[in-house]
Predict the structure.
Amino acid sequence: MAKSRTFRKTRRTRRVSLRRLVDFLILAVVLWLVLILAGRFLRQVAIAQIAELTNAKIKAKKIDFKFDGSVSIEKLVIRPEQREKYDAAILKAEKVYARFDIGSLLLVRPRLREITVNDFVFDARYDSDTGQWNTAGLKFKVAKGGAGKMPVVRLERGTLQYSRVSNARVKVATQIPIDARFGPAEEEPGAYSFRITTAEMAKAVKSTLKGLWRPGRITIAGGISSASVPAFERTWDIKVIAAQLSYEPNNTYSMELRIKDFLGSRGTDGDTFAFDKPSFLEGWSAFSTLQRFFARYRPAGQIDIGLTASGNLERLSGSKFEGKVYCKDVSICDRKFPYPVEHIVGDLDFTENSVTLNNLSGEHNDVNVTFNGFSKDFGPNWQYEIRIKSDNM
């Protein structure tokens, strides 16, 4: 009898263990299926939220979901919504890591918390055939599933390039290696802070810009140098730059800009800019006049600049602005008449169609000279009157 009871108890224990093992296997299979489905779902959510964040089309070669709540994306491409005859990609990245907020996963409202983009090329391209930028439709906004929060975005080991299309042919004008970080601003709720730096290069000064963005306003501060931009024929450094841009949904804008200690070197015999004139300056005759002035007189030295501007972001060449240039120590030398004037100090006022010289003073060896006058209505109706005076010539 005792053996029979022991045998029945052993069989019952085995059945319970077997049932538990079967239940565990079923649960494991269910969890495995859930994870597969969740992974597929979250891969689609990640791409959808990036597309909604940038208002652009997203394509990727491979997307993998990891159990730590992150998604790995290979060969990510961001393109404008409109179709083009050529590859109009805005951004191409070798590798992208996107991490979801764990709390949002538990609430079944997945939200991207971090996006890291590695080895990328951001191409700002202007099509002179159509008059359109490939970035025209690129608008950063909070995804609907994002609970009103934008993710932290890190851009690492990347290149910012400006290119142009003419007769359906693409020409890369300049490239700048950059790193950047964008994220919610702790000091101002609802705002977004950013920091952009040029990558370290041999014989190049590292440029840094940091700022704050919120819908309708952007503020920027930092210092920049042309040393890392090969498109510029003459080198220059800006020690301090501060700007605030306010804009409306209809693209009207106003801007205040302050530059302190702008240091410029004298260029070589080439043109002021080695690349094509920026498209938004086409039709603005003042820029052509400025280019001719730099090419002929080769100014160099140190200045400060104050500027206010207003207009429409879609028609920048029609902007209105006024400002002042404070010459601290400037030199000029006419290519056609090599009579250098050095140590120029004083200020000049300018608008979009005029420049006024306010008693600028300089030296040519032992000769002291002063400059007064104006230049206005740049273009075919150009008018000017420059008065040069010296008491010891």
Q: What stands out?
A: The CA atoms of residues 154 and 181 lie 5 Å apart. The helical segments are 2-54, 102-106, 285-297. The radius of gyration is 30 Å. Confidence is low (pLDDT under 50) at residues 269-276.
